[in-house]
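Mods, move this if it's the wrong board.
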Amino acid sequence: MALGDQHYTAPQKAGLISVAGYLQAHKIPFFKADVYRHFGIGERRGRQILHNGDEHVRRHPEVETRGRKPLLNTTLSTTSIPLDPQTSHL
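Not the wrong board. Structure tokens:
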């Protein structure tokens, strides 16, 4: 993490990215300097945040790797075994 990243909080950066994205998506005319000022972010750093906003690297993996391994393979389907209604005792 760069030293400049520590000054602005995650909600400030997320708000800047979301508001600028919303205004651009709905074709609402605005000055980016006004959005930077609203969130209390300098213009140079605001441009950096908007430029690098989509390149956020997640610290946690998407797949859970902790805990016990599953006892049954979840890819096998139990419905693939044909059941004969006459021999079934359910």
